[in-house]
Amino acid sequence: MKLKLHVWRQAGPSARGQFVTYETDASEHMSFLEMLDVVNEDLEEKGEDPIVFDSDCREGICGTCGMVINGRPHGPWKRTTVCQLHMREYSDGDEIWIEPWRADGFPVQKDLMVDRAAFDRIVAAGGYISVRTGSAPDANAIPVVQVNAEKSMDAASCIGCGACVAACPNASAMLFTSAKAAHLNLLPQGQPERYGRVLDMILTMEAESFGTCTNHGACENACPKEIKIDVIAMLNRDYMKALLKAS
Amino acid sequence: MRRVYSLYSTSVGKKYTMAVSGAIFVVFVIVHMFGNLKVYLGPEAFNHYAEGLREFGAPFLGHEWFLWVFRVGLLAFLLIHTVAAWQTSRQSWAARGQKYKKQEKLVFHYASRTMRWGGVALLLFVVYHILHLTTGTLHPDFIPGDAYHNFVTGFRSLPVVAVYFAAMIALGLHLYHGTWSAFQTMGLDGPRIKRWREPVAIGVALLVVLVNLSFPVAVYTGILQ
Question: In chain A, N or C: fewer CB atoms in 10 Å?
């Protein structure tokens, strides 16, 4: 199938970007990223700069890839990252607009690649538990309520891709921060540091250039792991409790 | 005080103060609507109610004491609500310097996208509403103390009715998303509350908008004379 691609090209973090149009011939059996790989091979043959984009596992579990396709983070399919999107979604003559995540908290490094170190800093602020390392603890030594185990696993399925920020009309990082806090705050192991974690993670998030949550719900609809905004309500609640406890 | 300050220093805390002040306004518009229903009981009942608002708390409180405390309180909450909205909006606008060429609206419902400009519209409407039916400045035939007369004559002009209709649409959207949002922002999402917050938000918005709109319609169609 013949496709017309409008791809955001930006030489560096401070350079001015623009859309460049490419025409390509893709097979319906290709994944979206393979289609871009072919475009890049052609560009390299012509001696031009290939389109820079992030990708790693290409099976939807690492959270490295991500781009906004026709206005939707990770493209039109639900529950998938862009590497899982396949070209059978498109038909001959389609025009596709490809943009990077657009948020000041995620500065563009080059073309479609953004710097998501802000997420690392939020996790470093509280997305961990302090334990003695050593041999593995006995299974079931600490009982976990089944419901909380399920909720915690749902929150822990966050791969940190940044689609929530990309989709949010406010470019807010609340879904990510809440998911990372919730998956520990729901477990017994996360309790000792719970409220300090909440304060530290929220303050770190605030120090980055993200926007504010207005409960649009766009993040939930864009999340490839279908994380629900319930975790945001939990973080809001824990934040109040944390302030009341802090003396 | 330090806690209040540290609460307000983050966007999460600002949203919390918006939720609390917003909840107060939700209660206020419901009470305001119920009070106005008295207009259907006739001039005497309505004027008696209007006078009662001024005499509220008598004989412990003097004439209009309660009313003025109430007004100042509402104004304070309005200030908190508006300032927090302004500050969080600015933070969000600044967070996406480079806009998308294409952006699908992935939001749950349209109402959430009307909060900012709808809120500004409501603010302007409140000013107009006070000048129209409280002070009478923008009322062509205002008689101080005769609330029923002012009410009925105030809605006889089509442009005025149109303004109230537009304002009620903005209010409905704001109430729906605001009520739902307040639960979410305050972290009230227990299994039982979660089942009810959507119906409650829709119910509050529909009730207030439909009853409030019945007033200008009743006047304009001649049901209320």
Answer: C
Cβ of B186 and A236 within 8 Å? yes
Contacts of B88 in chain A (CB under 8 A): 212, 214
Residue intervals of chain A classified under CATH 3.10.20.30 are 2-109
**Percent of chain B whose predicted confidence (pLDDT) is above 70:** 98
CATH of the domain at B206: 1.20.1300.10
CATH class of A116-133+140-245: mainly alpha
Assign A172 to helix, strand or coil.
coil
CB atoms within 10 A of CB A221: 20
SS3 for A206? helix
Rounded to 10 degrees, what is the CA torsion of B208, B211, B216, B222?
180
Reported ipTM exceeds the 0.85 cut: yes
pTM, entire model? 0.94
Scanning every residue of chain B, which has its alpha carbon at the shortest distance from the alpha carbon of A233? B187
Residues B77/B111, Cβ–Cβ less than 8 Å: no
* CA triple B142-B144-B147, angle to 5 deg: 80
CB of A69 closer than 8 Å to CB of A53? no
Burial B181-192 (b: 16+ CB within 10 A, else e): bbbbbbbebeee
Contacts of B115 in chain A (CB under 8 A): 214
Q: Is residue B1 very low, low, confident or very high in pLDDT (cuts 50, 70, 90)?
A: low
Bridge partners of residue A2, in order along the sequence: A25
